[in-house]
Design goal:
globular, five-stranded mixed sheet, alpha+beta, 18 strands, 13 helices, five-stranded mixed beta barrel
């Protein structure tokens, strides 16, 4: 008999805990962590003369509507000759979470916050991540600032990295800011309440668009995917709502990509190693070439991000409705990212999808451990002291962060599938249009067009590959195991 839904949230919480533990994650903070947390009196303050006081700048945060762990603030300042100075402030988590502490040990094991539909497993205790180390509105906080001067064309020139005290003057949300920027809604009250902030945000948006344009000229991929958000009605799963890109998300994405580039280049200039986020040349380029050919495009036989992006731009223009399907297929074929240690003088691996040579992760230390590692190395480089990690230790941490990120994504996907299974259990026997998203010896997977749901195809046609569209029938769901099974129907 189908689940009535009254216990969906509790069921999903239990599934999430079980899957977390199966994949080696800590689901609760130890007594040692809680005791250490209790000894922290309050937010860190900066008394050092090297810590700049930038509280008067028009800092603001833009994040998800329900986000409480605020990692970044941004502000723009007009400069001469059409240039703009962009400042990105990132929470100085290391000021309270010291290397080798019990709190750091928990974060080091999990390496990331894990977000599931019914429950979040934060990397750091919430008293830190949503309060003492969060860049909350109207609070003075220590931060690492990435300051960069951008030309009239959006190119990043001179840059600095330093510590500062900052103050968030407006906590903003993606959807309402995007509606305002795109002339679909009124100016949010939090923006209207701060003199000059509206103009500052429009300047940030203009610079971010130029930054994106330059990256696309170098081959950054213009992709568009649909992410699902589970909607509860009480404790029952009632819908899966797609979430897509918007102009406010673009501001943060482009400014953070630039700040992460500044971080990597700063460490290279100081002759310190850096923890880079890389996406190597795609191994399944041949299938990407086939997908392009199927849509009337042509790609070279060797991987070429510029050529791929030119094809993607034309494909979006030709058929915007199915472009998210193509984007999803390309993302699957590009392969996963990974963390690697790069040393001064080495040729960077780079990030194929972003078309950037220098790229670290240093903008989300409340929720990602690699960013906290990067901050500790940056702080050492600022004052020219010894690296806080041995070479072998840093390389081991890079691999561990890659492994745990992969495991975290599997946890999130499995619980999302469990959520989808609860939603779809009453629809067994119904047929749907679907897109093949994975094809390998271990199985074939499809994603529905009607719902942002992925499941296994039990009888794949011979030779079926990523990017193929099929008509499928839902034959089985198992919420506890996160199984959603389909079979092919029709021709």
């Amino acid at each position: 008999m189908p689940n009535t839904g009254s216990q969906h949230r509790t069921q999903l919480e239990g599934i999430a805990r079980r899957v977390m533990e199966e994949r080696g994650f800590l689901t609760d903070f130890s007594p040692q962590v809680l005791a250490e947390l209790g000894r922290i009196a309050g937010a860190a303050t900066g008394s050092d003369a090297a810590v700049r006081d930038l509280r008067n700048l028009l800092w603001c945060s833009i994040d998800n509507d329900d986000s409480l762990d605020l990692d970044q603030l941004s502000v723009a300042q007009p400069a001469s000759g059409g240039a703009t100075r962009i400042l990105v402030a990132v929470a100085d988590v290391d000021a309270l979470v010291k290397n080798g502490s019990a709190i750091d040990g928990h974060a080091r094991q999990n390496t990331t916050s894990v977000y599931t539909p019914a429950v979040i497993f934060p990397m750091l205790p919430e008293r830190l991540s949503t309060d003492l180390t969060s860049l909350n509105a109207d609070k003075d906080r220590l931060a690492i600032v990435f300051e960069m001067e951008t030309g009239a064309d959006g190119s990043v020139g001179a840059a600095e990295v330093y510590c500062a005290t900052v103050r968030n003057h407006a906590k903003l949300a993606y959807n309402s800011v995007a509606a305002w920027l795109e002339n679909r809604g009124p100016v949010p009250a939090a923006i209207a309440g701060v003199a000059g902030l509206a103009e500052n945000l429009r300047l940030q948006y203009a610079v971010a668009q130029k930054m994106k344009e330059i990256r696309h000229q170098h081959g950054a991929l213009d992709l568009e995917t649909v992410q699902a958000r589970t909607v509860f009605e009480g404790d029952a799963v009632r819908d899966l709502v797609p979430e897509t890109r918007n102009s406010a998300k673009d501001i943060i994405e482009d400014l953070m990509i630039s700040a992460n580039g500044v971080s990597a280049r700063f460490l290279e200039a100081k002759r310190y190693p850096s923890l880079r986020r890389v996406v190597r040349t795609p191994k399944r380029w041949d299938r990407i070439v086939e997908l392009a050919r199927e849509r009337g495009g042509q790609l070279p036989s060797e991987p070429d991000s510029k050529a791929l992006n030119q094809f993607l731009v034309s494909a979006r223009s030709a058929d915007a409705v199915t472009f998210p399907e193509l984007s999803l297929s390309v993302i699957k074929l590009l392969g996963p990212g990974e963390y690697v240690v790069e040393y001064p003088g080495e040729e960077p691996v780079g990030h194929f999808g972003l078309a950037v040579r220098d790229y670290a992760h240093a903008t989300a230390p409340n929720r990602r451990y690699p960013d906290l590692l990067s901050h500790r190395i940056l702080k050492a480089a600022m004052v020219s002291v010894a690296l806080p990690y041995r070479r072998d230790e840093l390389e081991a941490l890079a691999k561990h962060c890659t492994d745990q990120e992969d495991a975290a994504k599997k946890v999130e996907r499995q619980v999302e599938k469990s959520s989808a299974a609860l939603l779809l259990e009453s629809k067994i026997g119904q047929q749907f249009d679907a897109l093949v998203t994975g094809a390998a010896d271990k199985g074939t997977w499809v994603r529905l067009m009607q719902y942002p749901v992925e499941g296994k195809l039990m009888n794949p046609p011979p030779g079926v590959d990523v990017g193929r569209r099929l008509r499928v029938q839902l034959v089985h769901t198992d919420a506890e195991r996160g199984f959603i099974d389909f079979k092919t129907v029709g021709g």
